[in-house]
Each structure stands twice: as structure tokens, then as C-alpha cells.
Amino acid sequence: MAAPGVDDAIVGEGPRPPAPRDPSRTARLLGLTGALLMAGGALGAGALPVPNPLFGIRVLSLPSRNATVAIALTYAGIGMVVLAWLWIGKMLRNNGAVAPAPTPGQLARTAALWALPLALAPPLFSRDVYSYLAQSATLARGLDPYTLGPAEAFGVDDPLVRSIPTIWRDTGAPYGPFFLVLGRGITALTGNDIVAGVFAHRALALVGVAMIVWVLPKLARRCGLDVGLAMWLGVANPLVLFHLVSGMHNESLMVGLMLVGFEVGLRAGERWWDPHFLGGGVLIVLASAVKLPALLALGFLGIEWARRRGGRVRDVAIATTVYTAIAAVIYAVFGYGTGLGVAWLSALDAPSLIRSWLSVSTDLGLLGGQVGILGGLGDHTDAVLSLTRAGGIVVAALLAGWLMLAVLRGRVDAITGMAAGMGAVVLLSPIVHPWYLLWAVIPLAATRAMPRARRAMLVISGILAIVVPPTGADFNFRAYQLPMSIVAGLLVLALALLVVRRSLVGRTGVDVDAWPGRVPAGRPQARPGAPL
């Protein structure tokens, strides 16, 4: 009797190779591990309220006792999420070269799993939620949140004020009335309970994210883009996870309403009283009553409707008239219902109190001011800033007008035009925070056009995801913690990459063409998509 394996060798069959590792699954688990580390680190490194409600609670208070370790774990988690996201993007881009690329369903589940730990943890990267609570409470008490800062309305020792950064304690609300009305409802439910208020605002932010999840595949199909690619760039994006889910910025509600309104409006027929045409306008105006820049999408939707009717001056005039009337009615209802009129429009420049290095117009103003100082002309930085910022707004308006004209003539599709217009507004506005880029990144994720801009957004998203401190504030008086935490976080990240390196680079010892659904080299790919 032949020895075991001899007959197999004779017939050309050897022992079965080990099951191949799935680099997609490894990358998704790496991102989930990073999200869990971030959630744990948030207990000590997050934007916690003052006083910290975790003090005295066993186990949960441990991270806050050693903030350096907590920050290190958070930075390690940030690195894992960003690298896992970039690797999945490489799989989607090089489908057939890296196997197997995750399906749209897997991407949706992955985004949900990565978001879940962040949704249950304290906020990271921003303390804006405490301003939301105080400004909403100001309105609930019958005061004007646009003229009164939280400190003036409640006093600096009030629990709603103590957690707000000092620079914003005396500043009026820069948000639209719809958002503050929603916040007033949260105040009615939670009162002065800051923890309950924070989680209520996170629930509101998740409603906005859910709208984005619902609408993005529909917009991608309109543009002929692979849904998986759109979901990866627009939903699993670290900027979305970090700043809309964890940081709970109201951009989630603004962008969600804006895109849902755009999708609804694109379903409209040629009659101006079509419910889709009117409903889309209402939703976008509501988005602008959260943050005013969303109103730009209304212009692109009206231009697209006019183009479908023939693109005549009369068509543009009808769209302009209808949407202007809708905006006027909604703003009037909010003004009358809150008793504040249009006071919110005068408070929109509040964020410009700080100087943002991400703003092109602000950078030019600061550069011009320094040139004047070096040239012996004195310090006129504020005057130069006012000129460059005004110029940036004018240039953004001209670019948006040019894009609308291109949409009217059929040279650019409406979704691409709107995304590019929002990008111009973001980059040229006086103040730019990393999460502002989502105004353009999320709609851009749904279009096949502008692949270079999409690649740029990919790189920018990865970089900006790691530049905002997890505490949501600077490191004054404890600057030693930051370099120590970053070094420790990098060591943890390096150790994690050593553990998963074989799976991520596909060194499995088997033929990768054997993966189910794998497209062998030299054969055309069946998966539709667009290059990143």
C-alpha cells in the first residue's frame, strides 16, 4: 500500500493549500480596532464636559487619570482607521489587482461598525456641542441667542457655559434658526443635564448621517458611479466618522438635508408646481436654515430644472422666482415663530473671529500683513485680511455663477457643478475647519467627473483626519503631553501593523487569482466604477 500522499502526487494533487487570508476583512477589522481604541481613549482624551462626569466611576474614570495614555490610544486608533480606510480605497481602485474588494453591503456594514463605538463614546475633536446646548437653552428661555453669548445669558459659572471654550462664551450663535429650534426641543427634553443633551445632539447628528447614507447611492447611480466607491469616500470617510459622528457637528444635518433635497428635486417634471420640484426646494432651504451655504445647492437645482425645460431666460426666471418665494416663506415662518426675525443673518460672521490656516483668503491676508510689516509699512494685517476675505467671497461667487452657466448649457452635470461650487465656497471662505470640506467631499463622492479633484479630496481627507487634537482644544499648559502621546501612539500603531502586515500586503502563499470573484490578470473587469 502506497504511503499517504503518494497517489495524490501521482495524479498531480498535493495537499490543499491553506485558506487564503482576506485582506479586505483584515483591513476592516483593523479599522474597527482603531475605532474601539478611539472610544476608549475618549474617556480621558475626549472633549469631556466640565466637571468631568466620569470622575469617581470605577473603570470608566481610569483613562481620565492618565490623559497621556488616553491621548496615545486615541492617536493610535486614529491612525488605524485612516490607514484601513486608505487600504480599502486601494482595493476599490485596483479591483482585480487586490483581492477581494469589499462589496457595497460590506462597506455599509463596515462604516456602521466603525461608527458605533464613536457614537457611544464621549465627543472627540470638538467642543461645539456645548455651544449648541447653551445657545438652544438661550432660545428656550426667550432670549436672543444671536446677540447674547452664553456667558452673558447664563453667567460663566453655569454648567452649560463652563464646557464652552473661552473664545466662544461671549459670541452669538452662528447657526440658522431651524437648528436652534431643534436644539430648543432637545433642551425641553434634557434640561440642564449635559450628558443627556450631548447624546441627544448625537442622535440628531446620526439622523443627518442616515440621510447621507440613504441618498448617496441614489446620486451615484444617477452619475453612473459604483455605489461601493461612493459609499467608501462619502460615508466611511474618517472626516465623517470623526467629525459628524464623534464630533457631532451640524454639518451632518445640513449636508443630509441638502443632498436629499437635491435628489428629490432631480425627480421633478417640467411643471413648477411639481411636488418634487417644490419639496426639493423646501428641504434645501431647511438645510440653509441650519447653515446658510447650503442655499447654493438651491441655485444649481433651479438651473438644472430650467435646463431640462429648454434653458431659456424665462425658465431660469421661473425657477428663481419659485425658489426665492419658498426661501422667503420659510425664513419668515422661523422669524415669526422664534420672535427673532432675521437676526440670525447678522451673526453669520462669528466664526471669522479666529484665523484659519485652511482658508486661502485668510492665508493671503496674513501673508500680505507680514509683507507690510517686513517692508516697514506697519501692521495692517486686519485691513489686509478684510480685503482678501471679501475678495475670496467675490471669487467664490463668480466661480459658482460660472458653474451654474456650465450646468445650464449642459457642459457639467448638476451634481458635479454643485459639488465644485461648494468646494469653491469652502476653500475661499474666511474660515475653514476640516469638517467644512465635507460640504464638497460628500457630493463629490457621488459623481464620476473630476477624478483629480476626487483624488485630492482623498489625500486631504486622510491628512485632515489627524490634524485636529482629540480633546477639541489646544494643549496649553500641558504641551509635553502631545509629543509623548504621539510617539506612544505611533509605537502602538506600528505594532498593530506588524501583526496584520501579511494579510494587508496579500502575502498569503497562495495564488490570489484563486479568490472567488477574482478577475484574473489580462481579463476585463466586470465591476463598474470610476478611477479614483
From TrEMBL:
The keyword Acetylation does not apply. Residues 1-24 are annotated as: Disordered. It comes from the Bacteria. Keywords: Glycosyltransferase, Membrane, Transferase, Transmembrane, Transmembrane helix. It is a multi-pass membrane protein. The chain crosses the membrane at residues 29-48, 68-88, 194-215, 227-245, 281-303, 315-337, 357-378, 390-408, 420-444, 456-473, 479-500. Belongs to the MptA/B family. NCBIfam families: MptB (NF038066). This is Putative alpha-(1->6)-mannopyranosyltransferase. It comes from Pseudonocardia hydrocarbonoxydans.
